[in-house]
Amino acid sequence: xxxxxxxxxxxxxxxxxxxxxxxxTTCQKKARSEAHHRRRVGKTxxxxxxxxxALFIAQNGACAICKGTRRQRLSVDHDHRDGVVRGLLxxxxxxxxxxxARDRPEVLRAAAxxxxxxxxxxxxxxxxxxxxxxxxSRQRRKx
Length: 143
Ligand SMILES: [Zn+2]
Ligand SMILES: [Zn+2]
Description:
Elements: E1 2-3, E2 10-11, H1 25-45, H2 51-58, E3 75-78, E4 85-89, H3 91-100, H4 105-116, H5 119-124, H6 131-142
Antiparallel strand pairs: 1-2, 3-4
The structure holds zinc ion (2 copies).
One zinc ion binds at residues 63, 65-66, 68, 89-90, 92-93.
């Protein structure tokens, strides 16, 4: 057993690349993946080393819109018109929410207004979807 200098876990020899390995293979893999990510966001979005991490910390490690914290890395969101980096978003907010709203703030404001003040309730009162439809949409949301 040997103690990893990175994660501090006591691990068996087989978790080290060799007898002189000081960092376990799990930590090595993680470091390699982080280095790769750093290079990629640098090349693709012009982020300086450390800027992704600084932004991540500034956003409390959460998606800037839904505040979700997932195991997946947050995506670097940019304005498609001029390429300016806006912030870090989860894949749902970046890929679905903003895409569906076509990056238009007025659409998103209208969507919030719609959910808070549904026109049907105001104009025809409360009508209820059948159990079936209701369950289907609930299942779809789970996926
Ligand atoms: Zn380790
Ligand atoms: Zn999100």
